[in-house]
Amino acid sequence: MQGSANLNLMIKAARKAARTLVKDFREVENLQVSSKAAGDFVSRADIAAEKIIREELTNGRPTYGWLAEESDAVQGTDPTRRWIVDPLDGTTNFLHGLPHWAISIALEHKGRVVSAVVYDPAKDELFVAEKGLGAFMNDQRLRVSDRHRMIECIFATGVPFASKTTLPAMLQDLATLMPACAGVRRWGAAALDLAYVAAGRLDGYWERELNAWDIAAGLLLVQEAGGMVGGLREGDNPLESGALIAANAKIFDPLAKALRAPR
Fold first, then answer.
1. How far is Cα 145 from Cα 137, in angstroms, rounded to an integer?
2. CATH number, span 150-260
3. Cα separation of 177 and 184, whole Å?
4. 246 closest CA partner among 123, 139, 131, 145
5. What does pTM read for this prediction?
6. SS3 for 48?
7. 103 has which bridge partners?
8. Which of 24, 118, 147, 239 is most buried, taking the most CB atoms under 10 A from its CB?
9. How far lies 241's CA from each of 109, 207, 234, 244, in Å?
10. C-alpha–C-alpha distance, residues 27 and 169, integer Å
């Protein structure tokens, strides 16, 4: 697609950061890793990638705000725009040598995401979207799947780990959905789960305990590919609550009904 100047800047930043991540991924056993919390690690590669992305985006748009996983939020002199960045979504996969991780960059304007990049360097798949202009993967237009029967659908989610508190609710979700669908996947990278919904590889995705940088870009990808997104509690803003449902337009309502049902 012929992207805007902002989108091109985001793509440039993602590709530049990817070069260092790919190099470190090849030497994953030598990474210097410090523990953030049980099951959640931050690597030297993660911090270096965020530094590269921040420098590229800030040099290009010095007035925009900043929200990212590994650094403090910054209020820009332009209060209407901010970058929302996850420099390495799927850190645990990365550190275990699993080639399923991504860079996620979103641009928010007046509280709404208007541009999105999710880049998977291991597979060289670049997912992009701009508000009102569609979603694309390596210049191929994306459309969500057309499936409308739950029993034919594959869904993805994130299973809580370590100190996360939503495991009982997730187990109830799985007990409700698994007998009614074709399968549930747990890939470990929310940005790619959402990109795969946009690409029609998955029919839907839900999760209960995420941050804005995990999902901001992916939500726009799904919407621009013809899908629907919403809060796990009807009316909630997923970027604020961190609990979301995303699916093709035909399966969204039955999926949401199952997940929102009183237990």
1. 15
2. 3.40.190.80
3. 8
4. 145
5. 0.93
6. helix
7. 119
8. 118
9. 19, 11, 11, 8
10. 38
Q: How far, in Å, CA of 187 to CA of 214, rounded?
A: 14
Per-residue burial over 37-73, b if 16 or more Cβ lie within 10 Å, else e, is eeeebbbebbebbbebbbebbbeebeebbbbbbbeee
Q: What number of other Cβ atoms are within 10 A of residue 85's Cβ?
A: 31
CB-CB contact of 158 with 185 (8 Å): no
Tokens, residue 240: 């604020």
Convert the pLDDT of each residue in 228-261 to its tens digit.
999 999 999 999 999 999 999 999 999 999 999 8
pLDDT band of residue 37 (cuts 50, 70, 90) is very low
Q: Give ranges for CATH 3.40.190.80 in the chain.
A: 150-260
Per-residue model confidence as pLDDT tens digits over 147-201:
999 999 999 999 887 767 888 999 999 999 999 999 999 999 999 999 999 999 9
Residues in the chain: 263
Query: Distance between alpha carbon 195 and the CA centroid of its chain, in Å?
Result: 7
Pick the CATH number of 5-141 from 3.40.1190.20, 3.40.50.720, 3.30.540.10, 3.30.930.10: 3.30.540.10
Rounded CA-CA distance 229/186 in Å is 19
Q: How far is CA 201 from CA 8, 68, 145, 146, 263, in A?
A: 26, 27, 7, 11, 30
